[in-house]
Amino acid sequence: MYKFAFFSFACLLLLNACADESSLGTDTSQDSLETGTYANVDRALWQHFKAFEDEAASRGFSINLNQLKIRANISEISENGVLGQCQYNSHLPNQVTIDKTFWNRSSELYKEFVVFHELGHCVLDRNHKEDKDIRGRCLSIMRSGLGDCLDAYSSANRTYYLNELFGN
């Protein structure tokens, strides 16, 4: 038992010592499920993945992104105006890509908005929703960006948008 624990600990130290900070996480142990690390997800996205799970849990949903085998990375998206994508095809099932230029220029709140939007597609199976209020503000985090509603996601109304995201 002690030899196995020591060997596991030594391997973990070796892997951490050799890992690139921007590399994808690969830990699929039970500990990773409990500490907010995500296999095959760019480490910069981990806090938003954890927040998505936490927000779902606070609304009565049990979502484990590791068990769902969601993959995610931050890289350039060649299409103009596309900040993120969720791919459903058989080559990259549940693959989230966040545009690198957007990521490097955006606030944490707006990063969360885009990550949650893409997870809305990949995890909650949500489609785009272009509804707007009388002032023209988007009524859903799931808006496509192609409609004429105005983004209103802010710390003041974040709860409204997250209730709407998980409520459908």
Protein architecture, described:
This protein is mainly alpha-helical. It has a single domain (2-125), classed as Zincin-like. It contains 6 helices and 3 strands. Strands 1-3-2 form a 3-stranded mixed sheet. The radius of gyration is 18 Å and the shape is globular. The N and C termini lie far apart (48 Å). Residues 1-33 have low confidence and may be disordered.
In short:
The protein has helices at 2-18, 30-35, 46-58, 100-105, 108-122, 158-167, and strands at 71-75, 84-87, 95-99.
Report, as a whole number of angstroms, the end-to-end distance. 48 Å
Count of domains: 1
What's the CATH architecture?
Answer: 2-Layer Sandwich
| Overall radius of gyration | 18 Å
Low-confidence stretches: 1-33
**Number of helices, where a helix is a run of at least 4 consecutive DSSP H or I residues:** 6
Strand content: 5-15%
| Structural class assignment | mainly alpha
**What share of residues is helical?**
25-40%
CATH topology, by name, is: Zincin-like
Would you count the extended β strands for me?
Answer: 3
> How are the strands of the biggest sheet laid out side by side?
1-3-2
Average pLDDT, rounded to a whole number, is: 81
* N-to-C order of helices and strands: HHHEEEHHH
